[in-house]
Write a structure and sequence with these properties.
It is a single chain. The longest helix has 18 residues. 29% of the residues lie in helices and 17% in strands. The protein is built from 10 helices and 8 strands. The protein has a single domain, classed as TIM Barrel, CATH 3.20.20. Helix 6 runs parallel beside helix 7.
């Protein structure tokens, strides 16, 4: 059985990411209005302060998860498994287990490839990383991962270097000049089209206004992926009160819907007091007329890895709130 101790090395962390697709094999376990009665019925018999898994609405938005704990292993309605892979300091043996797991459950696989190491002291500067990628000196890093998944039989979506327009400084590929990012993205997209011609490409901004400068063009984007996280305390500080899922999605959706691509929420999480959890858990897979191009939402079922503003630390997005979490991967 995969154990928490395996996560304590950087290479073990990668195995943990791959094991997101096998954990359960060993461990069973917006503006739309909703009537109060229907909301209560949706959570009948469930304590949301312990188990905040979203309601999967019939004929609603598809749902997937990054799920290293296997909390969604027995969820029949899960459409996609999400894996995170750095392209430095990694071992790729055993990834086929992820494919087997997904195929057995009829799920797609979304793979986020982050162009760095999760051991931050191994990483080069932002400028050095940009120059290495644009000069072709990181092509083999990309090719190595794509070779490792080339025999997968599950449908694949490749997401490379997400949230590029954000100014948080969280990632080494943020704050690049838009032209440089676009050139780098298109380079990786070309390698993906060559090696995995059946895979779809996801371009994945965070959802901030500057994203429009980073659009790499229609020929290398099959899906747009946004990030939408709801934190009760943050909303109170920033907006004076709680925001709904629809309110949080609105900006990114409106900025990208004009590209004519299917839109996913590639990373989703929520945390807060009970009324906040009830709202988000009941809303994230609803079908919204105003979000007609929203096709799927992917839950990030783990603790945050980058500190939030206002001293709010690392929110725990895990749906099973009373169970232990793995050490933060960065």
């Amino acid at each position: 059985m995969y154990s928490v101790s395996d996560q304590l090395t950087r290479r073990g962390i990668l195995r943990g990411t791959a094991a997101a697709a096998m954990a359960a094999a060993f461990t069973p376990i917006a503006t739309a209005t909703r009537p109060a009665m229907a909301q209560s019925a949706a959570f009948a018999g469930r304590d949301l302060l312990r188990d905040k898994r979203p309601v999967l609405h019939e004929n609603g938005t598809l749902f997937g998860a990054y799920d290293p704990y296997g909390d969604f292993s027995e969820e029949d309605g899960l459409a996609t498994e999400h894996l995170f892979l750095p392209w430095e300091d990694l071992e790729l043996d055993g990834l086929d287990i992820a494919d087997d797991y997904a195929r057995e459950r009829g799920r797609k696989i979304l793979i986020t490839i982050e162009p760095w190491s999760w051991a931050l002291d191994w990483n080069v500067t932002e400028a050095e990383l940009r120059d290495l990628i644009l000069g072709g000196q990181r092509d083999e890093n990309m090719r190595a991962i794509l070779r490792a998944v080339s025999d997968f039989r599950s449908p694949l979506i490749i997401r490379w270097a997400q949230e590029m327009e954000s100014t948080t400084g969280r990632f080494s590929w943020q704050n690049w000049a838009p032209a440089d990012y676009i050139e780098a993205y298109r380079r990786m997209a070309a390698i993906t089209r060559e090696m995995l011609p059946e895979a779809q490409l996801m371009w994945s901004p965070k959802g901030e206004p500057a994203l429009v400068d980073y659009y790499p063009d229609d020929d290398v984007v099959d899906i747009v992926g946004l990030s939408v996280f709801g934190l009760d305390e943050f909303d109170e500080i920033e907006y004076g009160g709680p925001r709904t899922f629809a309110e949080s999605l609105r900006q990114g959706y409106d900025l990208t819907v004009g590209y004519g691509k299917p839109i996913w929420v590639a990373e989703l999480g929520y945390e807060g007091q009970l009324p906040y959890l009830e709202s988000w858990a009941d809303d994230v897979t609803r079908s919204y007329d105003e979000f007609a191009e929203l096709r799927e939402v992917i839950y990030f079922n783990d603790q945050e890895v980058h500190p939030w503003p206002h001293g709010l630390g690392l929110p725990n997005w895990r749906v099973m709130r009373d169970r232990p979490i793995y050490p933060v991967r960065r």
